[in-house]
Design a protein that fits this description.
- With 261 residues, this protein is mainly alpha-helical.
- It has one domain: Hypothetical protein af1432, CATH 1.10.3210.
- Helix content is 60%, strand content 2%.
- It contains 13 helices and 2 strands; from the N terminus they run ααβααααααααααβα.
- Helix 6 packs across helix 7, helix 9 runs parallel beside helix 12 and helix 11 packs antiparallel against helix 12.
- The radius of gyration is 18 Å and the shape is globular.
Length: 261
């Protein structure tokens, strides 16, 4: 089951569609029950990211599939691969409640009903193990004390970064500096973490993807407007937002404008 992550990262090796992911997982020899679990996780991702696009214009579900693909290649347990399909739903998933960065009891029940307790626990815990300028020092210092599941979840965050670099996606963001500045400032530490977690192939893939991305020049005609930074919802013409959701969003905007005065 422990497939090898190729050291030369190409999008042909990192899945971007559910079918590419399924075919990869079949070749890894995962059980029917495991495959069924990961499929449910993918379907939950589709539900919570319908109409959502990343800052580079890529359907957001393609990003989550890519992270799951990397985790699969690293031989991660299927529960963790499934969690990768929905790794940041409490941060930016669309639960229809106009909230973000929230793991409310209602949301958690919804996720448990869809994919089970174990996957939900991974997704909930993942929020505390994300690597960012504020957390990377503490997580790095405690890395050897983390249990196996937490180490897998830190690996998932490294996979998240790799997926954004593997197709040079960060260069197509309207403004991707929130990703690139962090990676450039912590490149050595990120690679060190991958090695300390026991994934030298991930460390090599990260180093190559970061360095190759730095050598690319993207024509301005292909870059998106600066306002495209992370994730956005594109509403189909046949749909409309619920009045309650619109009211909550407007109230949040008013609060933000007052706070930033």
């Amino acid at each position: 089951m422990h497939a090898v992550l190729h050291t030369r990262v190409t999008m042909e090796r990192i899945a971007q569609t559910n079918l590419q992911l399924y075919n990869q997982l079949r070749l890894e020899g995962r059980s029917p029950d495991d495959l069924a679990l990961i499929r449910r996780c993918y379907e939950l991702s589709v539900t919570l990211y319908s109409g959502s696009f990343q800052g580079d214009g890529k359907p957001f579900v393609a990003h989550t599939i890519g992270v799951a693909s990397i985790m699969g290649q690293l031989g991660m347990p299927s529960v963790v691969v499934g969690a990768a399909c929905v790794h940041n739903i409490y941060g930016n998933g669309n639960f229809g409640d106009a909230l973000s960065e929230v793991a409310s009891p209602r949301r958690r029940r919804f996720v448990v009903n869809a994919v089970g307790d174990e996957v939900e626990a991974c997704v909930y815990r993942f929020r505390s193990l994300r690597l960012n300028p504020e957390s990377i020092g503490e997580i790095t210092s405690q890395l050897d004390q983390l249990d196996k599941r937490d180490r897998d979840l830190v690996t998932m965050d490294l996979a998240d970064h790799l997926e954004k670099y593997a197709d040079y996606g960060v260069l197509y963001f309207g403004d991707g500096t929130w990703v690139t500045d962090f990676v450039e400032n912590h490149r050595k530490v990120l690679i060190e973490i991958a090695n300390r977690l026991g994934h030298p192939q991930l460390a090599i893939a990260l180093a190559e993807a970061i360095d190759e991305t730095a050598r690319q020049t993207i024509p301005p005609e292909l870059k998106r407007e600066e306002r495209h930074t992370a994730i956005e919802l594109v509403m189909p013409q046949s749909c409309m937002r619920r009045p309650r959701v619109v009211a909550i969003e407007r109230l949040a905007q008013v609060k933000r404008s007052i706070f930033h005065r």
